[in-house]
Design a protein that fits this description.
7-stranded mixed β-sheet; single chain; Leucine-rich Repeat Variant; 374 residues; alpha+beta; 3 domains; Nucleoside Triphosphate Pyrophosphohydrolase
Length: 374
């Protein structure tokens, strides 16, 4: 008795048969919609097949004995052929075969949409075994092989699997390619949402300026990151030529009997001898009010209760730029003492002009107080 060979629906030319199936599903209006989203692909090379149709076709054809003929027919012309190829090989259940198919396909991926469609399930269940290959693709120099590698680390190497050495792989990639660096930024923004303490150190200058700032932008757009963390992150933006952006600073306008507290900076500090409103830098996870309470306790040895925000603004010194958030407050425990300052004084707002204030405090906070009094 002879074995019965499975019958293929793709005939003698699997690539042509697959293309014909795709055109049966095509919608020109949807192709017009898709074209601007994938600028690296010509409109004439887009058929207009929606993803539910592609997924259903991939499920059907992946079991066809002749599908290898389509997978080997590289490069594909049409965007949907590339998407379909990705959807078929991501269903592969043998890891060795999957790696072989990826190595054959990735050099022919030429757009972000196909790259991001490719999400093999085995990379989650057998992540440790895939790591040598992910590292290899990350170091390949090929735009979409690198993007795919970073995407796999983002999808499978964060949360409970977070390890600094994996983030080091992403941080260590050097590329001028937009689609590489956008994925790197996406990775670190996701890491900030899932593993903030582990990801935050990578904002110390390890990333190139564009990726650094794009990471912060995407993190601030995420609903998974708390507002107070977003406030701190915005202060970590970098300006031109790699210079850091404004440091987020909370300044206290502490009232007593209609007077406000100002403190004289001690010797050895920048702007020594000038007067300022007390406060300091926001730490990760703090809002301005929380930072003020902590800083006043450290600097003045007392406890204040924040009341309301007075003003906020940027000022650029020669050595540093600051984003000051001025918070009105009152002392509720203890007595202010010059722990870190040389002198303290409660003064009327109209008397501030007779003191040599730090320029940022003078132009931002003192002016806001005078405008409020009027």
């Amino acid at each position: 008795m002879t074995d019965i060979k499975p019958v293929s629906a793709l005939g003698n030319d699997p690539a042509a048969a697959v293309r014909a199936r795709l055109f049966e599903l095509g919608d020109p209006a949807y192709a017009d919609f898709t074209a601007p989203l994938v600028p690296d692909v010509r409109r004439e090379d887009i058929i207009g097949v929606r993803f539910p149709g592609l997924r259903a076709l991939a499920k059907e054809l992946s079991a066809d004995p002749a599908i290898g003929g389509f997978l080997e027919a590289l490069p594909h012309r049409y965007l949907e052929e590339k998407h379909l190829h990705a959807l078929i090989i991501e269903r592969e259940r043998d890891l060795g075969a999957l790696i072989e198919k990826l190595d054959a396909f990735l050099p022919f991926v030429d757009n972000w949409a196909t790259c991001d469609t490719l999400k093999p399930k085995l990379f989650s269940t057998r992540f440790e075994e895939t790591l040598p290959h992910i590292r290899r693709w990350a170091a390949s120099g090929d735009t979409y092989s690198i993007r795919f590698a970073v995407g796999m680390l983002m999808a499978n190497g964060l949360g409970d699997r977070f390890r600094p050495e994996l983030s080091d792989v992403v941080a260590g990639i050097v590329s001028d390619e937009y689609y590489v660096n956008m994925m790197r930024a996406w990775y670190f923004a996701t890491a900030l949402a899932k593993n903030f303490e582990g990801a935050e150190p990578y904002l110390d200058g390890r990333l190139d300026e564009w990726t650094h700032n794009k990471t912060i932008q995407k993190a601030c757009e995420s609903r998974r990151i708390k507002p107070e963390l977003k406030e701190w992150l915005r202060g970590m933006r970098r300006g031109g030529h790699g210079k850091p952006g404004p440091i987020q600073v909370a300044a206290g306008v502490i009232w007593r009997c209609g007077r406000v507290l100002i403190c004289r900076r001690g010797e050895g500090k920048a702007r020594a001898g000038l007067w300022e409103f007390p406060g300091g830098k926001l730490e990760p996870g703090e809002n301005a009010e929380q930072a003020l309470v902590r800083e006043i306790r450290e600097e003045l040895g007392c406890t204040v209760r924040p009341l309301s925000r007075l003003c906020a603004g940027d000022y650029y010194y020669d050595d540093v730029s600051v984003h000051i958030i001025a918070v009105e407050a009152e002392v509720i425990e203890g007595e202010p003492a010059p722990v870190e300052h040389s002198e303290l004084s409660f003064v009327l707002p109209e008397e501030l002009s007779s003191f040599a204030l730090c320029t940022a405090d003078d132009r931002l906070i003192a002016q806001a107080l005078l405008n409020k009094k009027r």
